[in-house]
Amino acid sequence: MSTKKIIYVDKIKRIYERKALLKSSGEVKIELSFWEKFFNNNFVRKFLIIISLAFIWQAYSLYLDNELMFPTFISTVKALISVILSGELPEKIVTSLKILFIAYVGGILLASALTILAITTRIGTDLLDVLTSMFNPLPAIALLPLALLWFGLGYPSIMFVIVHAVTWPIAINIYNGFMGVSNTLRMVGRSYGLTGLKFVFKILIPGAFANILTGFKVGWAFSWRTLIAAELVFGVSSGGGGIGWFIYEKKNQLDIDVVFAGLLSVIIIGVLVENIIFKVIEKKTIIKWGMRSF
Prior knowledge:
Layout: H1 3-25, H2 34-39, H3 42-64, H4 73-85, H5 88-120, H6 122-135, H7 144-151, H8 155-179, H9 183-191, H10 196-207, H11 209-234, E1 236-237, E2 240-241, H12 243-252, H13 256-284
Antiparallel strand pairs: 1-2
Helix pairs in contact: 4-13, 5-6, 5-8, 5-11, 5-12, 6-8, 7-8, 8-11, 9-10, 11-12, 11-13, 12-13
């Protein structure tokens, strides 16, 4: 037998031996290389994307060479650190978050009440369907003139438009989640004698929590966006205001690097809420319950 044939036969033997080993051993742990482990980390991949975006920002602003129109990433970060250390920006952020929290919770409660009414009564279903068809497509900012007439200039007007922005997407997601709960799970609840609110809280909410959490995330994004937009228009009350008003004031003063710093802080808060608060809730609930793998 020639040398090439011997080598070929040895390769075939090793392949069959490897297959036999895989079948007999069940699970086989494959040691990943350093770079495979490095790029398998979600945080690392996202961090690299952020660094790349910052680099593009810096390169493009240097190319334009116009700080008044488009400040560099480095000057924006310096401005952000400056207004944070001075205490000016943190004060505005706290003001905005207080307003947002009250209105966001109010929107969740209103959406929950409408949804519970919808799944327990026929008239409630029709009411939710009509209201969401009417008001969900209506931008919250379009209600600013009415809010000014009804509540005056200040925080109540902002809370009104935020509640409008939050209620309808959350109500739609909660209702779709409830309707998607399997009949088997419903029958289990009925067999235990659960009715009314007990049935909702012990069967429907756990079964629909993935949709509910999605609704909360969408509602948060809408509320944060609406808050900043509303404050940019009429976010001042008794000489104060939130982060949107802070951005508006700095624009009038032509502190464009500080304006970009305010916008960057809005993005940072949004990313932190999305990737810390909601991720923790997901891990503690729907991932832990096996409703989602990752």
